């Protein structure tokens, strides 16, 4: 009986990975939609909760998974929240750039850092690329960059917050993975 | 899972870099105060001084330069937009009075280079 039960939950690593990509993408999309209703002191700025899913994919999976989550999030969230073309043209390059830099950062110094500083970096890169695309295609006035320092500071602070959230979730996930692994081995022997 | 010391250092560095981000996009270089009137452009020195433009423009206008900043202090134009603009000091800032055809503008030397030119 216990054997049958463990077999059902006993996923191969690649199945586990695929399932986790799905979970992280869903997390990103739900947060991405939800954060539209959370206002911040500066207009147009979001907490970046959707970045939690991307950061989890970076720290727990690999670069392909991270880009899959980032790409799907950047396409699907604007589909739901509206104003698709503008949001995708501004948001997609920013999301991909911040994912790329966060990945590089994690690959290079992952042993010394956690997702807290990775989140701050991601927030900063995201807002900078957003300003660049918005300034180039939509506003076309250098005066817009005068606002960038304020946005960047708030964005980095939000990144610290979401990075910490990602760290907590990562810890919880790893503990639960270990627990299930332990349970499995107990079931096999017992 | 706990925050590591390197995290805190990186976060502090990132917050410091916030102050330099603007320079990626806006041309730096030596700022020059430029007074633009109907008769053409004129460079103003950064010395504290009041410029009375009555003879030049025929309007009651006073431009004030103080502490490396400039403003249109008084103007007889109806909307007073140029006066309300306040001090201009960083690259690209401008106080403009359209009815009197007067503007104070901060010009930077390499403004035509790089990204700034693209964004226009």
UniProtKB/TrEMBL annotation, chain A:
Gene3D superfamilies documented for this protein: 1.10.1760.20
Domain of life: Bacteria
Matching Pfam families: Hpre_diP_synt_I
Transmembrane portions of the chain: 20-40, 52-72, 84-106, 118-139, 151-173
Record's keyword annotation contains Transcription regulation: no
Keyword ATP-binding: no
Keywords: Membrane, Transmembrane, Transmembrane helix
Protein name: Heptaprenyl diphosphate synthase
From TrEMBL, chain B:
Gene3D superfamilies found in the cross-reference section: N-utilization substance G protein NusG, insert domain (2.60.320.10)
Pfam families, sorted: NusG_II (PF07009)
Superkingdom per UniProt: Bacteria
InterPro entries (UniProt xref): NusG_2_sf
Identification of the protein by name: NusG domain II-containing protein
Source organism (scientific name): Geovibrio thiophilus
Organism ancestry: Bacteria, Pseudomonadati, Deferribacterota, Deferribacteres, Deferribacterales
């Amino acid at each position: 009986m216990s054997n049958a039960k463990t077999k059902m939950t006993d996923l191969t690593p690649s199945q586990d990975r695929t399932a986790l990509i799905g979970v992280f993408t869903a997390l990103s999309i739900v947060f991405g939609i939800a954060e539209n209703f959370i206002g911040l002191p500066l207009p147009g700025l979001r907490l970046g909760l959707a970045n939690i899913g991307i950061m989890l994919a970076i720290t727990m999976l690999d670069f392909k998974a991270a880009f899959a989550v980032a790409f799907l999030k950047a396409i699907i969230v604007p589909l739901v929240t509206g104003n698709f073309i503008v949001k995708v043209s501004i948001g997609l390059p920013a999301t991909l750039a911040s994912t790329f830099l966060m990945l590089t950062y994690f690959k290079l110094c992952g042993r010394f850092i956690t997702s807290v500083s990775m989140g701050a970096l991601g927030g900063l890169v995201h807002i900078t690329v957003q300003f660049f695309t918005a300034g180039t295609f939509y506003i076309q006035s250098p005066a817009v960059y005068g606002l960038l320092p304020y946005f960047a500071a708030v964005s980095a602070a939000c990144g610290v917050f979401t990075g910490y959230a990602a760290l907590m979730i990562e810890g919880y996930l790893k503990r639960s993975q270990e627990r299930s692994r332990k349970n499995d081995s107990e079931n096999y022997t017992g | 899972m706990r925050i590591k010391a390197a995290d805190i250092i990186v976060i502090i560095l990132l917050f410091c870099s916030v102050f330099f981000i603007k320079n990626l996009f806006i041309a730096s270089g030596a700022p020059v105060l430029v007074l633009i009137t109907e008769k053409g452009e004129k460079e103003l020195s950064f010395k504290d001084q009041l410029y009375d433009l009555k003879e030049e423009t025929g309007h009651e206008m006073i431009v004030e330069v103080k502490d490396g900043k400039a403003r249109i202090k008084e103007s007889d134009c109806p909307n007073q937009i140029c006066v309300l603009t306040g001090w201009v000091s960083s690259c690209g800032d401008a106080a403009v009075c359209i009815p009197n055809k007067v503007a104070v503008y901060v010009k930077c030397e390499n403004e035509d280079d790089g990204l700034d030119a693209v964004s226009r």
